[in-house]
Design brief:
The complex is a heterodimer of chains A (170) and B (437). With 170 residues, chain A is of the alpha+beta class. Chain A has helices spanning 2-19, 23-34, 39-47, 53-61, 75-90, 108-128, 153-159, and strands at residues 63-65, 96-100, 136-140, 161-166. Chain A has a domain at 50-166: OmpA-like domain (60s Ribosomal Protein L30, Chain: A, 2-Layer Sandwich). In chain A, β2 (96-100), α6 (108-128) and β3 (136-140) form a beta-alpha-beta unit. In chain A, α1 runs antiparallel to α2 and α2 (23-34) packs across α3. In chain B, β6 (169-176) and β7 (183-190) form a beta hairpin. With 437 residues, chain B is mainly beta. Chain B contains 4 helices and 29 strands. Chain B is elongated. The chains are: A alpha+beta (170), B mainly beta (437).
Chain lengths: 170, 437
């Protein structure tokens, strides 16, 4: 844990250093931080304004996924949330809403409760990484807002998710 | 003839009984061939004064449609009738009705006085040649459908010994738009799908409406303040109000049988627990206190017990507890998970959604958990609701795929006589009202 915190801190400093710099150096840092060696990704990266919701979605990763009926965070999910926490530390004025979602293979009310649990677990993990609870709200959507509409595991796995949405100024 | 109907009811009961004991072959025990709907002659309502209005014919059609829709009656094609009925006062020629196999005969006439209508009607047993019912109703024109349903209810009751369910409404969610951003609106319609009325604009996501026992209010879930919360909608005044202020999300609401309380779930931390809210003084009472998902509560009709679902065992299962929250006992033990329990208005059965091997089924079991019987099985069936007589269920069935969506179906609790309710678009979350009049 201590090691992880230290790592997060160093990542944070690195990010501060880079993100306050010019866009061309950010591209390199993307590659260092997230292994984004792909040129296409780097292209998108360079267009996002640092601290914007696009920056968050594209460069950090706004969502984590869950197994069927599960509310546990796997290693991939934890890694994404750690990146989200680092980004949120960079922009302390920004708040987020974590939307919980479930796939269509459950009954409506149970899925609402399940998606609430997913959102809460993501938030608890962000809080454990030092993000203040008052910066994070949750909204459970159950199975009401799928991102993928097909009726097979390829879509259901995308729909079992917790999505962090940056609250933008009106 | 009445004995014959009683035999039909007995047959239903026997089928229920046998399908209950032989659980293995649930779906095929009841087949249409086993049941012979009673042939009934429904003569066109005589309307000498206002024939051009067609009101008599309209009422006749609704009565025939209700009775045929129940699966227990077979309205004989009027073209086969040998006798033309010109008056309800004269006794019919029973022989001419027996010849066309009519076991029961309905005759009626309309009399109007300005905007007031009066319908005089009679129901005859063509074999005993006795009158089973002779009555009248006075109504204003806009209530003609209710009147037709009320008469159909009377016929159903006289010939089956059961209460009717035709003069009822269904609250539901009207759906439109793409699957990834579906618009959902609160709506009501008559039990036969007629008179659909949209109650909300679609701006806010709304789900799971349930009728109050008097049919005047709906309790439902709305995202109008961002967070999902339980609201009440007053159908007459169109007013909406939130049911109490809770620290977290409230959902899965239902009225108590006397309409004075709401039971629902409150999400707290990682669990969801059941609360009862008194609507007169807003007192709230905690009924469960665990870190599991406890939801979908439904009172027994005598208000003494509550059935609900909980995943405390690892999967969703059904539990019954005393109305105060004590004496929790699990009642579902089959393969798979069980959810959305609803107690029958008769108190005998609990209807539920069952998920097993990737299939979604509607089933019923006795309140002690015995006698489980699956009524329909497929890709996705969910959310049963009871007709007020406890004989018929509605539920929604979702079709798979990108263009898939939900439609509402009704089915007899024997599994027989499944029918799709025609709605303007996709429709889900049905809730059956009590009898309206």
């Amino acid at each position: 844990m201590v090691y992880k915190k230290a790592l997060n801190l160093s990542v944070t400093f690195l990010l501060i250093f880079i993100l306050t710099g010019c866009a061309s150096t950010r591209k390199n840092v993307e590659q260092i931080l997230f292994g984004g060696g792909n040129n296409n990704e780097a292209e998108i990266v360079s267009n996002a304004i640092p601290g914007s919701s696009q920056d968050f979605t594209v460069n950090v990763g706004d969502r984590v996924f869950f197994a069927t009926n599960s509310t546990s965070l796997d290693d991939d999910a934890k890694a994404i949330l750690e990146r989200q926490a680092s980004w949120l530390e960079l922009y302390p004025e920004i708040s987020i809403i974590v939307e919980g979602h479930a796939d269509e293979r459950g009954t409506r009310e149970y899925n609402i409760a399940l998606s609430a649990k997913r959102a809460d677990i993501a938030v608890s993990y962000l809080e454990s990484l030092g993000i203040a609870g008052d910066r994070v709200e949750t909204v459970p959507y159950g199975k009401e807002r799928p991102v993928a509409a097909c009726s097979s595991e390829a879509c259901w796995s995308q729909n079992r998710r917790a999505v962090s949405v940056v609250i933008t100024e009106e | 003839m009445i004995n014959q109907m009683n035999r039909l009811i007995l047959l239903f009961s026997l089928l229920l009984f046998f399908s209950t004991v032989s659980q293995a072959a649930l779906e095929i025990d009841v087949s249409e061939g086993n049941l012979r709907p009673m042939p009934i002659a429904i003569t066109t309502v005589i309307d000498k004064q206002n024939e051009q209005l067609g009101l008599g014919l309209d009422i006749t059609k609704v009565i025939a449609s209700d009775l045929a829709g129940s699966g227990l009656f077979y309205p004989i094609n009027p073209k086969a009738f040998l006798e033309e009925v010109n008056s309800v006062d004269r006794n019919p020629n029973f022989n001419s009705w027996r010849v066309v196999n009519a076991e029961a005969l309905f005759t009626a006439e309309l009399i109007s006085d300005n905007e007031r209508f009066r319908i005089n009607y009679k129901l005859w047993d063509t074999f005993s040649e006795k009158s089973l019912e002779a009555n009248y109703l006075v109504f204003s024109k806009n209530k003609w459908r209710n009147v037709a349903h009320m008469i159909a209810d009377t016929i159903y009751t006289r010939l089956t010994g059961e209460k009717g369910y035709f003069d009822t409404q269904i609250a539901f969610i009207a759906e439109s738009g793409p699957k990834t951003n579906r618009m959902k609106r609160l709506a009501i319609m008559d039990q036969d799908g007629q008179n659909p009325i949209l109650l909300t604009s679609g701006k806010d996501l709304v789900l799971t409406p349930r009728f109050s026992p008097n049919g005047k209010e709906l309790v439902y879930l709305s995202y109008r303040n961002g967070q999902p919360q339980v609201y009440i909608y007053d159908i007459q005044s169109k007013q909406t109000y939130v049911v109490g202020t809770f620290p977290g999300m409230t959902f899965a609401p239902r009225f108590s049988p006397d309409g004075t309380k709401i039971i629902m779930s409150l999400q707290e931390g990682v669990g969801s627990n059941l609360f009862e809210m008194n609507l007169s003084n807003f007192d709230r009472k905690r009924l469960t206190n665990t870190s599991d998902i406890n939801t979908a509560p439904s009172y027994s009709p005598d208000s003494r017990n509550i059935v609900f679902e909980s995943d405390k065992s690892g999967t969703q299962q059904l539990y019954v507890m005393d109305a105060g929250g004590d004496n929790v006992r699990r009642i579902s033990f089959g393969t798979g998970s069980y959810s959305t329990p609803v107690w029958s208005p008769r108190g005998d059965y609990i209807a539920f959604t069952k998920i097993s091997k990737g299939r979604f089924m509607i089933g019923v079991m006795f309140a002690d958990g015995s006698g489980e019987r699956i009524i329909t099985d497929g890709f996705h069936n969910e959310g049963p609701t009871w007709a007020p007589n406890g004989r018929v269920l509605m539920f929604f069935r979702e079709s798979p795929g990108e263009d898939g969506g939900a439609m509402i179906y009704s089915v007899d609790i024997t599994g027989y006589n499944e029918r799709k309710i025609e709605t303007p678009g996709y429709a889900s979350d049905p809730s059956w009202s009590a009898l309206m009049n």
